[in-house]
Each structure stands twice: as C-alpha cells, then as structure tokens.
Design goal:
Blueprint: E1 3-9, H1 13-16, H2 18-33, E2 41-47, E3 52-54, E4 57-59, E5 63-69, H3 74-92, E6 100-106, E7 112-113, E8 116-117
Parallel strand pairs: 1-2, 5-6
Antiparallel strand pairs: 1-5, 3-4, 7-8
Helix pairs in contact: 2-3
Length: about 120
C-alpha cells in the first residue's frame, strides 16, 4: 500500500541511484511498520532544474511524498520519516537539510491492491 513518489530535479544524485533508493525505502518501511515489502511502491519523477519551489523560491533538493495507511502512531511515523531520510541521504550523499519528506495517510478502505480492498492498519 505505501506509495513513495520522489520529485527530483534533473542531475540530482537520487536519479542515478533509483533502484538502490527504492530498495532502501522498501526495507525501511517494512522494518518500521511490519508491512510486507511486496506492498511498497516507489516512483521517481524527474523535473527540470528550478521546478521545485519553497516560499516562492526555487530549491535544488528533491522531495518525497509518501502515502501510507492511516493508523500508525506518532512514534512510528517519526521513525519512518527519519529512517527514510537517513537511508536516502546515505545512498545519495544528499544533505538531510536539502530534502523534504511529506507523509500522507489514507484509510485502508481507500486502497485496492492485488484485487483486494486493504484492511485498516493494526499496530501491535
């Protein structure tokens, strides 16, 4: 169910490490949430330089929007955010201050995967 979409300016190191970044995001998500790795989706969208803006000004760093199933605790979401950021930075050499990650939550009932509507999250 989780879907991680990277918006990355052309030339950013993330693009040359797509497979490695996707594998790391999958590993982090599975380890932190207990979700099966087979459910983790990653997508990379390359945009021209100076296409990402913050406060109306262009920035060079990539952005990640992750859609995850709702119901995760604040602690789990924080571990997920830091784990994703740390793995991404370790692989690409990008400074943590130069990336941004946004998590959006959606109920399991709003997702169809493998022909099935997902159950709600159940943390132990």
């Amino acid at each position: 169910m989780p879907f991680y979409q990277f918006t990355v300016p052309s030339g950013d190191p993330t693009l040359s490490h797509r497979a490695e970044v996707a594998a790391a995001m999958t590993k982090v998500h599975a380890e932190v949430t207990g979700a099966p790795a087979a459910y983790v989706h990653c997508s990379f969208v390359e945009v021209p330089p100076r296409s990402v803006f913050v406060a109306g000004e262009p920035v060079d760093g990539p952005r990640l929007v992750g859609t995850i199933r709702s119901g995760r605790s604040t602690e789990v979401r924080a571990r997920l955010l830091h784990g994703l950021a740390d793995a991404w930075c370790e692989i690409t050499g990008t400074a943590k201050k130069d990336i941004a990650i946004f998590l959006q939550e959606t109920p399991g009932a709003n997702v169809l995967e493998d022909g099935e509507v997902l159950p709600e999250s159940s943390e132990d």
